[in-house]
Amino acid sequence: MELVQTYAPVSRPENPTCSVCIANYNGLSLLNECLKSVMNQSGELDLEIIVHDDASTDESVSYLRKNFPNISILASTENVGFCVSNNRMVEFARGKYILLLNNDAALESNAIETLLTASQAQPSEGILTLPQYDWKTDVLVDRGCFLDPFHNPVPNLDIGRVDVAMVIGACMFMPRKLWHDLGGFPTWLESIAEDMYLCCAARLQGIPVQVTRDSRYRHLQGKSFGGNRADSGRLSTTFRRRRLSERNKTAVLLVCTPTALVWPLFGLHMACLILEGAALTLIQRNTRIWKDIYAPVFSFLRSNGRSILVRRKGMQQKRNASLRSYANTFVPLPQKLRLFFKHGLPTIR
């Protein structure tokens, strides 16, 4: 049985400047604005647009085929998740550059032109993003992210800071060759922190990860996966998102943290996870919090510890960056502590 049905236009570009890759799952209500924002880009750009539909049940594929005949569609017969979806699109892509774009995001009209200019100005072409603005409020969300010591993303709001620790997969731009050199998204992470992993891998090799000063994109945060934002001043997330987040950030910390610093940091991280999980479980009187979010981190490490250490060895052998240069986009204050004082305990649904 064929796992992906491909619908490619007859006029598909042979050597486009940029391939825009849009992962879609039940995003019928979002696709029109997302795609129109790509098609309305300024400048003399030769673009191709690729949508991977992850076995949607909302007629997304038929809508795309009817209304956007000039885009390529990879229609999966089974739900494979964000990592596989993007890996498939980049493998299919022909562009010199790729732009990963969420279906719940829309670009400013000069976005791709800005990204191309910024990429060509880098000392070595690396990973880029645009300033992210909230879809509903038009408030700046981040200009890329820093990381705290436990690999929690910390939004960068400083227009003067161009170098960042990571950019989110909702808007990620780079040369296609660099994607292949870095190995793409690791499918064993499933979803969440795959963008962090790729950016940390790049920075370990001395490859820049940056945000442009100009242009922007709008993003309906949390629409595609749930959570990841404060509503009415309170943090809200889902059990699945929080489980994958805690598990995958732990894996990235282990694989990517350079030097022997990883071991005391890992020990402190695990102690904090135990205290955090126990406190949330007791305060909210819900044993599911420990069972479905925190316990899986330990079972994951027991089952995959050896393979994670092998990945760490391979990653660190490619390291060209010093500990100091790698750590210059980390902040010392734990992000969870800052969010707790600002928003209180999260609501998990």
Automatic annotation (TrEMBL):
InterPro entries: Glyco_trans_2-like, Nucleotide-diphossugar_trans. Residues 19-131 form the Glycosyltransferase 2-like domain. Gene3D superfamilies: Spore Coat Polysaccharide Biosynthesis Protein SpsA, Chain A. It holds the Pfam family Glycos_transf_2. This is Glycosyltransferase.
